[in-house]
Specification:
This protein is of the alpha+beta class. It folds into 2 domains: about 5-140, Probable inorganic polyphosphate/atp-NAD kinase, domain 1 (Rossmann fold), CATH 3.40.50; about 155-345, Tumour Suppressor Smad4 (Sandwich), CATH 2.60.200.40. The chain has 9 helices and 19 strands. It has helices at about 40-50, 60-70, 85-95, 115-120, 125-140, 160-180, 190-205, 280-285, 290-295, and strands at about 5, 25-30, 55, 75-80, 105-110, 140-150, 155, 155-160, 210-215, 220-225, 230-235, 240-245, 245-250, 270, 275-280, 300-305, 310-320, 325-345, 360. The strands form 3 sheets. Strands 6, 7, 8, 9, 10, 11, 12, 13, 15, 16, 17 and 18 form a 12-stranded antiparallel sheet that branches. Helix 2 (about 60-70) crosses helix 3 (about 85-95). It is globular and about 55 Å long.
């Protein structure tokens, strides 16, 4: 029997039934503010759930309340219904409680930014969600879930400069084009318009920020397009980069959103995130937008590294994004690698074959 715990209810902690001992305890957490979540979707999802608990959150405060309930109920698997921002918020809230045992985390593809859904193998549509739920019930699909942590928040990616600008300008492009094109303005078209329009103009008309990136963790390495080491290790405390840059971003997954492969080597690394830093010229990017989206873009002033922890210092306040959400401007930030347990959807996940990953001691 499914249990529904909308935080708007008068008694959100009532558990009228018991979980079945033969199955993992599964909770579904919906973000009511996600693009695809509405009353009809919630009703349809209720019809699909069997022994899973359902939580519907409308605010940051409610999300934290749900996290405490998940920990107290010793939930085994948490499926987040929303996009990358929802996923980041839920896992951050649960981890902040320092549970004795962290649940495994998965996604139901219901949000706008679905980079994590691509990586974890979550399917689209109600039939896809039904398949994912059956998959979780029947199969033991635990997989590595590499993330980064910055300012206390867990997410798949974070960075300063161009990636944060693209997010800001993509939101503007969606609002503007959406009046005419509707949902067609989302995804690659919206990103292409953002990059070719506002982002490129801002980068060409403003001086690039001076940044210093320092290794704060295990030895770091520069890597090639196949994720292989280049040159000597960079010891803890050493500078990785000093100079002007239009991007300094880290990720544990290839996608930045809508299959925008901004970090093509990220899933080739084990125990580290990909750090991408550079000052590639705007004209070179504008003439290679398809290559930029597919992860095939190369430039002599674009460098990639495998790291466990770095600090980034900017000479002045620079736009910063964490998990696809703009976090304002920053002059100093730290980014560290964290690994958790994930649960695969019914499609083929991108992190299901650890034996194929490059392990860098």
């Amino acid at each position: 029997m499914m249990r529904d715990h909308s935080i708007a209810s008068s008694d959100p902690l009532t558990l009228p039934h018991h979980f079945e001992a033969s199955r993992p305890k599964v909770a579904v957490v919906l973000n009511e503010n996600a693009r695809a979540v509405d009353k009809q979707l919630i009703a349809d999802l209720r019809g699909l759930l069997q022994n899973e608990a359902l939580y519907v959150s409308r605010s940051l405060e409610q999300s934290r309340f749900i996290a405490r309930h998940i920990v107290n109920q010793h939930i085994d698997v948490v499926l987040c219904g929303g996009g990358d921002g929802t996923f980041s918020q839920v896992i951050t809230d649960v981890a902040a409680l320092n549970p004795r045992r962290m649940p495994a985390f998965g996604l139901l593809r219901l949000g706008t930014g679905n980079a994590m859904a691509e990586v974890l193998g979550a399917k689209q549509g109600l039939s896809g969600i039904a398949n994912d739920l059956r998959h979780v019930r029947v199969e033991d699909q635990r997989i590595p879930l590499p993330l980064i942590q910055s300012e206390g928040r867990l997410s798949p990616f974070a960075g300063v400069g161009m990636d944060a600008m693209i997010l800001e300008d993509y939101s503007f492009a969606r609002r503007t084009l959406g009046r005419v094109l509707g949902k067609a303005s989302e995804g690659p078209l919206g990103y292409a318009v953002a990059i070719a329009g506002r982002t490129s103009m801002r980068l060409m008309t403003k001086p690039l920020p001076e940044i210093v990136i320092r290794n704060e963790g295990a030895p770091a390495y520069r890597i090639d397009r196949k994720g292989q080491r280049i040159g000597r290790p960079i010891a803890s405390g050493e500078e990785i980069y000093r100079g002007q840059a239009n991007i300094a971003a880290a990720s544990t997954i290839p996608f930045f959103g809508f299959r925008f492969r901004l970090f093509p080597q990220a899933n080739l690394l084990r125990g580290r995130f990909q750090l991408r830093v550079g000052r590639a010229s705007i004209p070179s990017m504008l003439t290679q937008i398809p290559q930029l989206f597919s992860g095939r873009f190369t430039h002599e002033q674009l460098w990639d590294y495998a790291c466990t922890k770095v600090s980034i210092h900017c000479a002045k306040g620079t736009p910063y994004q964490i998990g696809g959400d703009l976090a304002g401007t920053r002059q100093h930030m730290e980014i560290a690698f964290r690994e958790f347990e994930g649960v695969a959807g019914s499609a083929t996940p991108m992190v299901s074959a650890p034996a194929s990953l490059h392990s860098i001691p």
